Amino acid sequence: PNEMHNLIDDIRFADVRSKMHDALLDYMDKIRDPFRSYQWSLRPWRKDARPRWMGAFRPRPQDGYSPVVRDYDTGLPTQGVKVEEKKQKF
């Protein structure tokens, strides 16, 4: 009970580990986890992963409770995720 053998780097379990990791990331996106970030997908043991960041804006779900998210430029309701290529200014 006081020992732990970490299998995160064991190649025999890489498939299971990756599936569990993907499920966690999908769940974090679904519930809009405030601590999620693209760094969660870029773990040192996940060489095949790509950043999952979709930009600085994620519209709220259409659940009848959350307020309507409006586009900053037009004031119209958003039609999904708006992805823009932006370069860092520093």
Question: Explain this structure to me?
Answer:
This protein has 90 residues and is mostly helical. The chain has one domain. The protein is built from one helix and no strands. It has one helix at 14-30. The protein is elongated, with a radius of gyration of 18 Å. The relative contact order is 0.11. It comes from Escherichia coli. This is Sulfatase.
What is the oligomeric state here? single chain
DSSP strand content: under 5%
The value of Rg in angstroms is: 18 Å
Give the number of domains: 1
Mean pLDDT: 77
| Net shape | elongated
Distance between the termini: 50 Å
Class by alpha and beta content: mainly alpha
Total beta strand runs = 0
Order of helices and strands: H
User: Number of helix segments?
Assistant: 1
Largest sheet: none
Q: Percent helix among the residues? A: 10-25%
Q: List low-pLDDT spans.
A: none
Keywords:
90 residues; mainly alpha; 1 helix; 19% helix; 0% strand; Sulfatase
Task: Please render the helix and strand layout as text.
Elements (H helix, E strand, L loop, with lengths): L13 H17 L60
Summary of the model, kept short:
Helices cover 19% and strands 0% of the residues. With 90 residues, it is an all-alpha fold.
